[in-house]
Amino acid sequence: MVTMGQLTATLNPLGWTLPIIPEMDDLTVGGLVMGTGVESSSHRFGLFQHICLELELVLSDGSVVTCSREENADLFHAVFWSYGTLGFLTAVQVRIVPARPYVRLQYRPVHDRSQLSRLLTEVSGGPHQFVETLVFDRDRAVVMTGDLVGHAEPTAEPHKVNTIGLWHKPWFFKHVQTFLERGEDYEYIPLRDYYHRHTRAIFWEIQDIIPFGNNPVFRWLCGWMVPPKVSLLKLTQGQTIKELYEKNHFIQDMLVPLDQLDSSLDVFHREVEIYPLWLCPFVLPADPGFLQPASGKEQMYIDIGAYGVPRTVNFDAVKTGRRIEKFVISVGGFQMMYADSFMTREEYRTMFDHSLYDKVRRRFDCLIAFPEVYDKVNRSARD
Ligand SMILES: NC(=O)C1=CN([C@@H]2O[C@H](COP(=O)(O)OP(=O)(O)OC[C@H]3O[C@@H](n4cnc5c(N)ncnc54)[C@H](OP(=O)(O)O)[C@@H]3O)[C@@H](O)[C@H]2O)C=CC1
Ligand SMILES: CC(C)=CCC[C@@H](C)[C@H]1CC[C@H]2C3=C(CC[C@]12C)[C@@]1(C)CC[C@H](O)C[C@@H]1CC3
């Protein structure tokens, strides 16, 4: 399947792009349809599923079907988050929108929590094309808003152009952190560099893999060799590293209603105290399927991504994970399923609305052909 890196490399020079480009080069269209994808334009366009127009699948009996909002609509809506348990995805028709060569990215440091939720709520409903926040500790964060621009502005202010994707540039999250001290400012970033800004540092996971990787000498001499491919890291980690990561590392994305941001940040701070945190608002329409907005109608949500080593002394992967999952269910939120999930089947069914999924599985003879999604994604089932 096609990757995000291939899509931006092909489409952007032609003046086109996808409305949502999940940021790591190697993410595939298939994985993002069957799982989910969220990015800094999601406050306007929703999740990756919301930019899909038509899907082609091979079903359990070998037949090939296409589905969309108009044709086989039940199947179309049930496919997202189904992780390949309804059929094999063979083609996707996805929306494209005009691109421009640069993003004007505004960095706005905030130094207190209430200011953070106020500003994020304001910009999530505002006119900017991109919205993303990195939280650096309990109270300090940098809210970023971006807009597509042509060549004129960067040409007029060449000192404001920052090609952040070059091998010798500082890791993006480290660069963002400097604005806490420097104060509010803006830069022009080439579009592809912006889209894939978290690739080189795998968000900030690279600092646990190559702790000296942001040293300027290392970057200039060896920066072109990193990052290692996530798929390679996954494939080559031995049992010991795997267990170390399982016990001492936390990788989760929780999607909660935006009005629950403050309480959610408190929970993450109390339970894992991992920083930076990734905050990415997205609009969730009330479409049929697994994800039903807590309010029953279109609602603004936010993805809270925590990747790293917990600093809390009583961290216990399973117990802590379960407490956070329960909190997320209690506020009408969702957990992304690429990471470990410890929910019981009942909790999983409370978090995700299975009514359409169950109906479609019966209709298309999936019960014997494919596992149920819980049995594929839950931690106890994976072991
Ligand atoms: N910004 C974001 O939103 C980010 C999202 N992610 C997550 O990472 C995952 C995407 O990673 P990626 O490596 O591309 O995907 P994966 O290969 O991890 O696939 C994810 C799931 O989709 C299934 N799948 C993939 N392609 C097909 C297909 N053609 N037909 C049927 N099922 C398919 C896989 O099934 P099987 O297990 O059988 O192979 C698997 O269950 C997503 O789940 C996403 O949520 C990760 C980073 C960033
Ligand atoms: C932005 C969203 C929604 C998600 C980003 C998630 C990523 C940060 C993780 C997805 C898979 C993770 C893996 C690792 C780091 C964090 C992710 C890229 C490892 C590379 C960490 C080191 C281990 O040895 C292998 C891991 C594979 C998966």
Task: Provide an overview of this structure.
It catalyses: 5alpha-cholest-8-en-3beta-ol + NADP(+) = zymosterol + NADPH + H(+); lanosterol + NADPH + H(+) = 24,25-dihydrolanosterol + NADP(+). Its EC number is 1.3.1.72. One of its GO terms (cellular component) is membrane. It is globular and about 60 Å long. It is built from 20 helices and 13 strands. A hairpin with a 5-residue loop joins strand 2 (52-58) and strand 3 (64-68). The relative contact order is 0.14. Helix 14 (261-271) runs antiparallel to helix 15 (317-330). It is 36% helix and 21% strand. It has 383 residues and is of the alpha+beta class. Among the domains are: 4-98, Uridine Diphospho-n-acetylenolpyruvylglucosamine Reductase, domain 3, CATH 3.30.465.10; 102-235, no CATH class. The strands form 3 sheets. An 8-stranded antiparallel beta sheet has the order 9-6-8-7-11-12-10-13. The two termini are 27 Å apart. NADPH dihydro-nicotinamide-adenine-dinucleotide phosphate binds next to helix 2 and strand 4.
For the structure shown, list the relevant keywords:
single chain, 383 residues, alpha+beta, Uridine Diphospho-n-acetylenolpyruvylglucosamine Reductase, domain 3, 8-stranded antiparallel β-sheet, 3-stranded antiparallel β-sheet, 13 strands, globular, binds NADPH dihydro-nicotinamide-adenine-dinucleotide phosphate, binds the ligand CC(C)=CCC[C@@H](C)[C@H]1CC[C@H]2C3=C(CC[C@]12C)[C@@]1(C)CC[C@H](O)C[C@@H]1CC3
